[in-house]
Amino acid sequence: MIQIILKNSSFRKLVKFGIVGAASFVAGYITYALLCKGHLIFYGDVGKFYLLYQVIGSIVGLIVSYYVNKNWTFRHQTKKEKKYFRKFLAVYLIGFFINIGLVYYFVDVATWLPAFLSKQRLFLAPIFATAISSIINFFASNKLVFKVEQVEED
Hints:
It contains 6 helices and no strands. With 154 residues, the chain is mainly alpha-helical.
């Protein structure tokens, strides 16, 4: 049973996409958190700047995600000479706007959060938002960006 699951190319791509997503999230989140922390240290309150810092972190994550997904996750679906960045950017922008909207929601709107989550929402919001937008990005990247007529196996 496990061998059947591991031999499934869609499952392997999903696992690789998850690993790449985690790496790009970490790169983007560290950028976001450092900018927020720095702003808090210098100004005492981050205000709405957290949205700008989320944008900057997302750009860092985009760069990591594109290059690693193209050259590792979907490498058997890509042609070296073909450019995929425009389609990837379009798909990523959809996920990005969902992500930014969810970060805003969790930081400024979600008054229903328990008190222990509410105090840390500035730093927890990107985690929740990324989990949701990543699902959309995987399916769109696989079917719209790196689609192929014939998939080579490892």
